[in-house]
Design a protein that fits this description.
By secondary structure, the chain is an alpha+beta fold. The protein contains nine helices and nine strands. A hairpin with a 2-residue loop joins strand 2 and strand 3. This is Type IV toxin-antitoxin system AbiEi family antitoxin domain-containing protein.
Length: about 200
């Protein structure tokens, strides 16, 4: 089987709306040949170019009679695969994931172990902001997310309701991770993280 057919089969096997980068086809062909295959698949309609280096398997939404825009979360995950970054949603995105805010942001921002980067397509914006280990690690995914939510709220806005809401989402394993990792967080956050780890009612 040639490289073109191998790449096509990999894309066909993926769910509609899946996001790809060249890294996802590593080992099938060299970079230049992979780019040529991708360009042919775009011309065929098997892929869409979202932005530079990011490609989407089209996803048709019948009720809207149109194709779905690329999911920012899937794009972020593809960029992590491509670059090996550690990322955490921040601001309104972190609050939304934890159920602390119902607003779904059009501009999704992640703190990242990688460089500052910004990607845009249609009305969607995806931004990566480089941050120190105080925000990225050494934290589990859930602890890092909680840290970003607390930072977005700020110490003057964090209420008992916010603490209870976060507690309600966590498993015992999550609370154990928060308990063990809280000492690495910003000093002002540590009392809140300790309350969360204790599952304060």
């Amino acid at each position: 089987m040639n490289s073109m057919q191998t790449i096509r089969n990999q894309i066909q096997a993926a769910p509609d709306g899946s996001i790809f980068t060249l890294h996802d086809f590593y080992g099938i062909a060299d970079r230049n040949n992979t780019k040529q295959c991708i360009n042919r698949l775009i011309m065929e309609g098997s892929l869409n170019r979202v932005c530079k280096g990011i490609y989407q398997k089209p996803k048709y939404i019948r009720i809207l009679n149109s194709y779905a825009s690329a999911d920012p979360q899937l794009v972020a995950e593809a960029l992590v695969r491509e670059n090996g970054w550690s990322i955490v949603p921040t601001g309104n995105a972190a609050l939304n994931i934890l159920g602390l805010d119902t607003q779904v942001p059009m501009r999704t921002v992640y703190v990242s172990s990688g460089p500052n980067r910004r990607y845009e397509w249609g009305k969607t914006s995806l931004e990566f902001q480089h941050r120190s280990s105080k925000e990225i690690g050494p934290f589990s995914e859930i602890t890092a997310l909680i840290i970003q939510a607390l930072k977005a709220l700020g110490p003057d806005r964090i209420s008992d309701w916010h603490i209870r809401m976060i507690c309600s989402l966590l498993s015992e394993g999550d609370r154990e991770a928060v308990r063990n990792e809280s000492r690495f967080a910003f000093t002002w956050m540590q009392p809140y993280l300790e309350r969360i780890a204790k599952k304060e009612e």
